Amino acid sequence: MKMKRFSAALLLGVLGIACNAQKKNEPVVNENTLLWKITGKGLEKPSYLFGTIHMLCSEDAVLSPNMKTIIGKVDEVYFEVDLDNMFEMLGVMSKLKMRGDTTLHDLLSEKDYEKVKNYFESKSSPLPFSMLETYKPILASSLLEQNSFPCETTAMMEQVIMQEAKHYNKKIQGMETMGYQASVLDDIPYKVQAEQLVTYIDSSSANSQESKELTEMLKAYKEQDLKKLEEMMMKGEVGVSQYAETLLYKRNRNWVEKLGQILPGKSLLIAVGAGHLPGAKGVIGLLRKAGYNVTPEKNDTREGVSL
C-alpha cells in the first residue's frame, strides 16, 4: 500500500508515502476486500485488481484460495513495475542517487546529520552509511522501516503473488518502469525527504506513536479494510501531501489509461499498492468512471476451499 511506510526490498514500489490524502467528500469503498473483478465495456474476459502492501509480517503474507485460482486462470500478471526484470532492477540503483552529487550532509544541519549518521551506524543496514547518504533519503527511511515491524521476518505480497504466478508460468509485466518511479521521487525535494528522515529517527528514539500507527495500518490491511486505510490516508503528512498529484493521482490516471489498451482480449491480474484503490481518484473509482464494472470478490485467506 501507499502510505508513509517504505519497503527497501522493493526499492521503488513505495512511492506514495503519506501523501494519499483524499478529500472527505470523496466516495469511500465500503466492501472489506482487496480483490476486485473488472468486467463490462465490451471486455470478453474478466480481469482482476488486487491491493498489495510492500511489506508485512511473513505469517500474514498469505493468498486466499480464490486468489490462487485467479492467478492460475489469468493470462498475465501486472505489478506496478516488472519485478521479473532483474536487469532493470539492478540498473535502477544508479537512478536512486540524488542528482547533482548532493549528499545528506548538504541537506541537514551538522547536528541532524550526526544524529542520522550515528543512528544508522548503530543499526544493522545492508548498505554502509557512506554509500547511503548519496541516495535519495526515502531509501534510508525504507531501511529503517524494516527494523520497526512487530515480527522477526517480513515479506512482500508482490513476491508471494509472483511465486504463485511463476508456478503457472504466467508472464510478469509492469504498469510503469522503475526508472519512471525513480524520477517521481525527485518531485519530493531532497530536503523534505531528509527532514522526514530526521523526524522518523526522533520519533523512533522517543518511542512515539510510530509503532502504534504501523500496527494499526497492518491490522487494517490484514482485515482488508480499504475504508480504514483511506481514513488513515486522509490524515495526510506535513511536507509531502502537496505532492500527491504527481506521486499518486497522476499515476492512477496513467494506469487506467493503460488498462484501457491492455484489458481487451486478455484476462489480467493487476496487483498494485492498496492505497491506490479507494477514493474518487483511486483506481477503482477511475475504472468505474471510465465505464467498467468493478465489483468486490471474496478474498478470505482462512478459507480452505475456493470461494
How widely separated are the two ends?
A: 24 Å
Q: How would the global form be characterised?
A: globular
Low-confidence runs of at least 5 consecutive residues? 1-30
Please report the total strand number as a whole number. Answer: 8
Structure classification:
alpha/beta
Helices and strands, in N-to-C order? Answer: EEEHEHHHHHEHEHHHHHEHE
Taking all residues together, what is the mean pLDDT? Answer: 81
What is the percentage of strand-forming residues? 5-15%
How many helices?
A: 13
**Major β-sheet strand ordering:** 6-4-7-2-1-8
Instruction: State the share of residues found in helices, binned by percent.
Output: 40-55%
Provide a quick synopsis of the model.
The chain has 13 helices and 8 strands.
Task: Give a structural overview.
The chain has 307 residues and is of the alpha/beta class. It has a domain of 206 residues. The chain has 13 helices and 8 strands. The strands form 2 sheets. A 6-stranded mixed beta sheet has the order 6-4-7-2-1-8. The radius of gyration is 19 Å and the shape is globular. The N terminus is likely disordered.
Task: Map the helices and strands.
Layout: E1 35-39, E2 47-52, E3 56-57, H1 65-73, E4 76-79, H2 86-91, H3 104-107, H4 110-121, H5 129-132, H6 137-146, E5 154-155, H7 157-167, E6 171-174, H8 178-185, H9 190-205, H10 210-222, H11 226-234, H12 244-262, E7 268-273, H13 283-289, E8 293-297
Parallel strand pairs: 2-7, 4-6, 4-7
Antiparallel strand pairs: 1-2, 1-8, 3-5
